[in-house]
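Q: My labmate handed me this sequence with no annotations at all. I'd like to see what the chain might look like in three dimensions before we decide whether it's worth expressing. Could you predict it?
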Amino acid sequence: MPLLVDTGVLYALADRRDAWHHRVRRYLEGTRQTLLAPVTILPEVAYLLRERIGTHAERALVASLVKGEIAVEEPTARDWARVEALMDKYEILGLVDASVVAIAERLKLDTIATTDRRDFSVVRPVHVERFTLAP
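A: Here is what I predict for the chain of 135 residues:
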């Protein structure tokens, strides 16, 4: 089963100064799960890497994608409808986080690797009582 990741986890993994860096790194080193990134998080991750760390960090993300170290999941038409419903129900959710939830629900994943406790802890997914938020 893949490990669904959000923007914060991929960013923290790259930025040694990030408060989540060591926790994320230890957690990911302890799992053999394939990292699965919704395509919707990639522009956000790329922007943060480029702006806060530099072009080399953004290029390292692309290299990881090329090598298959991070799998990418595209939202389906049904996912987009669910994104809209989630954004209507949870004002706190934007498109990116709602897409992570919609993909998690479709794939029946109960864990999201995230640094965003505020948004994801509020959501009540359709397939489980609540998400397990890691690390």
